[in-house]
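Internal ticket #5521
Category: modeling
Description: The requester needs a full-assembly model to guide mutagenesis choices. All entity lines are attached below as received. Residue total reported by intake: 309.
Assigned to: D.W.
Attached entities:
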Amino acid sequence: MDNYIAIIFDDDSKAYDGLHALWNLDSEGDVTIHGAAVIHRDKFGYVDVATKDTDPGVRTAIGVGIGALLGALAGPIGAAAGASIAAGTAAGIGAAAGGVAGLTADVAKSGEQDQAAFESGFVLPRGKSAVVAEVTEQWTAPIDDLASRLGGSVFRRAKGDVRSDMWFDSDYPEYLYPYDYEPTYA
Amino acid sequence: MSKVRDAVEEARSDAQALHKKILGTTAKDHAAIRASARSVATEASELARAIRGLLENQQADAKQHLKDAASSLDAAATDAQYLANASGADVKARNLAALGRVRSATQELSQAVAAKRASLIRA
């Protein structure tokens, strides 16, 4: 199965451990990781990616794509939750959209990105960190066990479903590193 | 599943290393990028050639991913050769283009690795 996953952790440190553990599963042949990154959502709803690079051109792409993937991972969960709390969410949508833009507020202004950012809140709550990844897994147990061992929780959605999601951004791979790295926040 | 590391995995590892190398130049000045470009072009071309040498014994799904990876690496080599003599904004643009192509190659190789691992499980 080709899936996108997000493993949610309480803090950056655990997410870093999760990233390395995920790539270790790849090294052992238990799963195949095609790309992964550590992200964090701060108390204001802003999402940032822990990169190994500080080039502004690279980070622009990072800021746009991450909200789209999180929104796509939320999928029906985000939509259902959004419907149940429809009143009073407008401020939250605005805050989240700004957060997704991160370093590049000028590029996060379409309705699609607002919606993706809104839904992303259901995957990655404020104050939490996560490992997001594109993986091929023959069974879900290795990643589920990893998450359980490190105190994380897993969101998982089939790659085909994510890519057909109306909110998905085709620029997604720009922020997923195709190998393990030491994450830093610029 | 036991640990398996074959020629396809080695190729993926080489592509990952090449991606790291290019990424490491993105925040540097034009002179540093140009200085690195020739070796990037050579490494990308050699890796593409090595990958094509692996095609014969691969199953159809892995073979297509390997072909696509080799094509991306050839394109990256072309970008790197061009930027070795480029100037101005073209330097950064071509470097990012090469980075993107090597990323694509790495992901194609990763898909080939996944296909091979799946075939081992089925066997």
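Resolution: model delivered.
Comment from assignee: The interface with chain B takes residues 2, 27-30, 32-35, 52-55, 57-58, 136, 138, 173, 178-179 of chain A (CB under 8 Å).
Ticket closed.
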